Automatic annotation (TrEMBL):
Predominant place of localization: endoplasmic reticulum
GO cellular component: endoplasmic reticulum membrane
Transmembrane segment boundaries: 306-330
UniProt keyword list: Endoplasmic reticulum, Heme, Iron, Membrane, Metal-binding, Microsome, Monooxygenase, Oxidoreductase, Transmembrane, Transmembrane helix
SUPFAM superfamilies (UniProt xref): Cytochrome P450
Binding site for heme: 461
Similarity section: Belongs to the cytochrome P450 family.
Organism phylogeny: Eukaryota, Metazoa, Ecdysozoa, Arthropoda, Hexapoda
Listed name of the protein: Cytochrome P450 9h1
A molecular function GO annotation: iron ion binding
Topology term for the membrane: Peripheral membrane protein
InterPro entries: Cyt_P450 (IPR001128), Cyt_P450_CS (IPR017972), Cyt_P450_E_grp-II (IPR002402), Cyt_P450_sf (IPR036396), Insect_CytP450_Detox (IPR050476)
């Protein structure tokens, strides 16, 4: 009996081992350089998986180690990732052979989340093209400019909040946790500029909009577990119909948007916000009579599709913006010379304004601000890697018709943005915060396709100005930043302008000394948070 049990255990052990190693033949068979995978977790280190070291550090390390290879193989749990190290290849995948690499991998859509599978970032092929064409006009400069005042008002509320805290504590300085602060700011911007409602999350700390947003954004431990399980056994998770998000959490937004749309339609109200732009986009979509004959699948634009785009804008607007701003204030606090130069520029604009409110054209004139934000997005790109899925087999050729790389249908391609940004051959002294790298006279030193904070090609962040010559990635403008998302930039510039005009940012007792050391796991957020001290300028 004991022998039978032992034999069964042995068989079970062999089966489990076989299952754990089953996907790891891909790179060996395809001749792609890679490290030996470990059962179940592939090349992901346990330290990253258990949140001891940051994923981005591992990404940078592997890139440096295998830099001489154009493509490097990485088993992310059980998924083979083809990581691109060669800029020529990145250009081909992102732009020239885009038709083979149109889609992102469907991490969230695979959870059968109907809402998330309808948002632009998850849509595929012709459905994505149609939706992107429909939404792009909503992001033109003139339409976004109209949102400036709504955003600027939220920035002023953010400053008033700090002033009142200082008054209440009768103090000249105050230490604030910037992720929380900017989540509140980003929340109010989205509420106002996207959903058309006014909230002040600095004062009314637990308003319903804020609470609903937090519940959609912040993954619980259970959601993280579901993601890991999905990595290990996707078919089982799919078959079980396990959902990542609680659908009830989006109900609040649903009623908010649809009630607002109904009210506006009935009362003929026009407000320059995202709901209005999406209502227009929907109207234009429905008016389109011709759909390209070649398209096999068509996008729809029913109420759920509109809601999906709103929720997407909420998620990016909230999470990406608050991370980006928290890092920006951190770098300004740790780099006092940069902060002083930026303050000088702000002070000049203030003088020019002679007490009048800040305007969009004045903000756009601030060139040093552009350099600072460009450098921030180099050092801490919120989207630290990009992904594409190969839709048809392709042999990518270089200009001499030599094969650069061969990809097969369903291969997952990764572009390690942060590793390119931190490569000393691309950016000397990569760990230093040096906005001057982006000066007009230095821009030729930046190699094409090594700076990708907003992604690249037709699938890059929406709302960009087409200042890139797509085939060469050579800039036609003096500022890299202008190719980014203008709504995002407007938001960053406006709040930084107002904060620096009133306060100096200095390290406090709780400020993290070494940011990379403080990061853990897959998040780009330090475990010790973003504490920064604000000192009133009028007493300096
Ligand atoms: C500093 C802030 C931001 C950064 C760094 C950023 C970066 C990115 C990146 C890297 C991508 C993927 C690009 C690719 O795969 O090539 C992306 C996609 C996207 N972003 Fe942003 N983003 C920012 C802010 C925003 C904001 C505020 C919005 C909304 C108003 C937005 C809307 C989108 C959308 C809709 C997509 C999907 C585009 C598509 O799949 O066609 N982003 N963004």
């Amino acid at each position: 009996m004991a022998l039978i049990l032992l034999a069964l255990l042995l068989v079970l052990f062999v089966l489990i081992y076989k299952f754990s190693m089953a996907p790891y033949g891909v790179f060996r068979d395809r001749g792609i350089v890679h490290e030996s995978p470990r059962p179940f977790i592939g090349n992901l280190s346990l330290r990253v998986l258990f949140g001891r070291t940051p994923f981005i550090e591992m990404l940078i390390h592997k890139y440096q180690k295998f830099k001489q290879y154009k493509v490097y193989g990485f088993y992310n749990i059980r998924e083979p990732f083809f990581v691109l190290h060669d800029v020529e290849l990145i250009k081909k995948v992102g732009i020239q052979d885009f038709d083979y690499f149109t889609n992102h991998r469907d991490m969230i859509a695979e959870f059968s989340e109907s809402l998330f599978s309808k948002c632009l970032i998850s849509l595929k092929g012709d459905k994505w093209r149609e939706m992107r064409n429909t939404l792009t006009p909503a992001f033109t400069g003139s339409k976004l400019k109209a949102m400036f005042e709504l955003i600027n008002e939220c920035s002023l509320e953010g400053v008033r909040y700090i002033e009142s805290e200082l008054r209440n504590s009768n103090s000249l300085d105050i230490e604030l946790e910037m992720k929380d602060y900017f989540e509140r700011f980003a929340n109010d911007v989205i509420a106002s500029a996207a959903f058309g409602i006014k909230v002040n999350s600095f004062v009314d700390k637990t308003n319903q909009f804020y609470k609903a947003g937090q519940s959609v954004i912040h993954f619980t431990g259970l959601a993280m577990l579901k993601i890991i399980l999905y990595g290990i056994m996707p078919r089982v998770i799919k078959a079980l119909g396990i959902s990542l998000f609680d659908p009830r959490k989006t109900e609040y937004f649903k009623s908010l948007i649809f009630d607002a749309m109904k009210y506006r339609a009935e009362h003929k109200i026009i407000r320059s916000d995202m709901i209005h732009l999406l209502m227009e986009a929907k109207r234009n979509f429905l008016l389109q009579e011709t759909i390209p004959e070649s398209s096999t699948e068509h996008a729809e634009f029913n109420d759920d599709d509109l809601l999906a785009q709103c929720v997407l804008f909420f998620v990016v607007g909230f999470e990406i913006m608050s991370v980006c701003l928290a890092y920006l204030t951190y770098e300004l606090c740790m780099n006092p010379t940069v902060q002083s130069k930026l303050y000088e520029e702000i002070h000049k604009v203030e003088q020019e304004l002679q007490g009048k409110p800040l305007t969009y054209p004045m903000l756009s004139k601030m060139k040093y601000m552009d350099l600072v934000i460009s450098e921030l997005l180099r050092l801490w790109p919120p989207a630290f890697s990009l992904d594409r899925v190969c839709s048809k087999d392709i042999d990518i050729l270089d200009d001499n018709q030599e094969v650069l790389a061969k990809f097969r249908k369903d291969d997952i391609i990764i572009i390690p943005v942060i590793a390119l940004h931190r490569d000393p051959e691309n950016f000397p002294e990569p760990d230093r915060f040096k906005p001057e790298r982006f000066l007009e006279e230095n821009k030729d030193q930046i190699k094409p396709f090594t700076y990708l904070p907003f992604g690249l090609g037709p699938r890059s962040c929406i709302g960009k100005l087409t200042l890139f010559n797509n085939s060469t990635n050579k800039l036609q403008s003096c500022f890299y930043l202008f190719s980014g998302n203008r709504m995002a930039l407007m938001e960053v510039k406006s709040i930084i302008y107002h904060l620096l005009s009133k306060f100096q940012l200095v390290p406090g007792e709780k400020t993290v000394k070494n940011m990379m050391d403080s990061l853990k796991g897959f998040h780009m957020q330090p475990k010790d948070k973003f504490w920064i001290k604000f000192v009133r300028r009028d007493v300096l």
